[in-house]
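Cross-posting from the chemistry board since nobody answered there.

I work mostly on the small-molecule side, so proteins are not my area. We synthesized zinc ion and want a rough idea of how it might sit in this target. Sequence and SMILES are below. Is it possible to get a predicted 3D structure of the two together?
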Amino acid sequence: MIPLRPDLPRVRQPHRIERMRALLYPEFDRIENAVVPEPPPPAADEVTLRVAACGICGSELEAFKNHSPRRTPPLVLGHEFCGVIDVVGAAVSGWGRGARVVSNSLVPCGTCVRCRRGDSHLCATRQIFGMNRPGAFAERVNVPARCLLPWPEALSAEEACLAEPLANGIHVARLTQDLPAGVALVIGAGPIGLFCQQALQVLRGSKVVVADLSDTRLKVAQRLGAVRTINPRNEDVTAILREMTEGEGADLAVDAVGAAVTKTTALQATRPGGGVVWIGLHDNAITLESFGITLPEKRVFGTYAATLDDLRLALEWMAMGRVDAKTWTTSLPLTEAATAFRRALAAEGSDIKMIVCP
Ligand SMILES: [Zn+2]
Ligand SMILES: [Zn+2]
């Protein structure tokens, strides 16, 4: 054995790599329960969380189906999560081991021009968990401390992890705050649609009409307070909205599907001077009659993601019981995550939102 020369810098003890269970997206068209290396020790501004719950998001299912170049395998997905802090980075203050936290899905840089003007969700170099950095369908994940909010005592892990999709709904309601929203149409009664519905009800006092192809989902929308539900298989969305509004149409329409047909329906079902929000990401290129925006002076908003402040409000509303994020979800252990993911892909059963609990 060669003795260490004292003038040489000491070789750092390599970090012993422990393994953990995770839902792995190893290559296109494959998703599997796997054992992967644990995250490295957190960077100075990060913590390592023991993940308590992580929701399966429609955007991940779409990305998987479409081989999205925005989420390229090998990857651990998962961006809607909460957990308990296990390791605290050297420069982190205000958070300690054992703290219950909810994470933002985005990591904004905090210093670029967009971050400085308050649009941190539009940060040019933002990272997204399960996209540009490892996600939370795993036992452990590293998170920058500036992405964390306290996880309220009153909320279960399954509820707290859904603060992120609720924050997206809150973002929609806030984005359109200057427009009337007396009668609002929400197309798509998936998790984002149901959270947009509830956010409009709570923030704007809107009467919300919900359209979806699934009667099971429409029943949930109704239970959550929709004044009218429409299944476009047998009813005409635009005609019904006009009937309800002296021939005018909805004040505001939110398309939480994003298909070509739902984007145009949202436009058509809105009254002159009304607003349309496109949040769904199903189809990219669509054919559009642009005069339908110009002549009746409609306003079209695009939106994606939410700010940390939207997430804060989401947690507040949930803790106050103003939003139901509980009675329409299904949770499964991490060991069944691959099954859950495939079930969600096939849209089998009546699951609307599936949550993985490590
Ligand atoms: Zn999501
Ligand atoms: Zn930035």
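Reply from a structural biologist on the board:
Welcome over. Reading the output above for you: The radius of gyration is 22 Å. Residues 191-204 form the longest helix (14 residues). Happy to explain the token format if needed.
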